Amino acid sequence: MAEADDLVAAIEKVEEKLAAAKASITKRFVGQEQVVDLTLSALLCSGHALLIGLPGLGKTRLVETLSTVMGLDGSRIQFTPDLMPADILGSEVLETAADGSRSFRFLPGPVFCQLLMADEINRASPRTQSALLQAMQEKVVTVAGENRSLGKPFSVLATQNPIEQEGTYPLPEAQLDRFLVKIDVTYPDRDTERAILLSTTGTAEEEAHAVFTAQELIEAQLLLRRMPVGDSVVEMILDLVRACRPEDPSASQRVRDTVSWGPGPRAAQGLMLTVRARAMLQGRLAPSPEDVIACAQPVLSHRMGLNFAARARGDSLDGLIADVATQVSGVEAAA
């Protein structure tokens, strides 16, 4: 009983700090509460996020603010077609000492940080994109045959422009699967846009301040994994993921006619973590079926593919996932 009480007290303490962090972030990144929640969820889960949105919607501002508020050492890479893997990972240089001896010295690249912003990640060549795969999955990079650990914690927040497709390279499925969530950053509504105008075009702007330290974030990440998940939520996650696989017996005819490939076990792992993070961000002690529905689209949509016929019909994965989640839960999706 004492251990359970300690867990509850620890979760409540982290929830208070998360509320303060959200308040600080939303002073600079006005509106878009769901985007802020999903990005914070990725950090709490020690995962990576892919932000999809048009230019000028504040994606870069959000990442910079997160770096400050969460007390992380941030770094930014602007991906371009001529970017090379060494520009991300670093390289060895030959140095001559005062006594004439020569030796190699490793110059770390920008990936050696705690929060990496990969701006317009789909503009780099596949060779350069693949340089991030090992870093994102193992949080280690290999340069000149030597494994080098990255910062702790380490997360990648990548941005992608959905409309400028000339000169871009689609991210391969193996790399998309490394992103815990895909976050759609949409246009703000009129009231939110008014608030943005008033808060960002005056003589002074709100400044973000640190709420977490890197060590406190690591402790929150460990605490998140201790949050209990009820059997009904676990079974719902399994039902949802398996129902999205066209070859699974539980899949509906619509899924079989629409989906080319479905989510793997990593998607189920991602859902287990993100539902906990959503509950924690909302001040609750355990996740609910509503959390599974809310997290389904961000976690699953980039881990599934439409077949040719579905793409020709203009079908939407988001709508399909929402319908499947509603069917397996019996709970109506929130508006």
TrEMBL record:
Family: Belongs to the MoxR family.
Protein name (database record): Uncharacterized protein
Presence of the UniProt keyword ATP-binding in the record: yes
This protein's record includes keyword Metal-binding: no
Domain of life, source organism: Bacteria
InterPro entries, per database record: ATPase_AAA-3, CbbQ/NirQ/NorQ/GpvN, ChlI/MoxR_AAA_lid, P-loop_NTPase
PANTHER family, sorted: MAGNESIUM-CHELATASE SUBUNIT CHLD, MOXR FAMILY PROTEIN
ChlI/MoxR AAA lid domain span: 253-310
Keyword entries, A-Z: ATP-binding, Nucleotide-binding
Record-annotated ATPase AAA-3 domain positions: 48-181
GO terms of molecular function: ATP binding; ATP hydrolysis activity
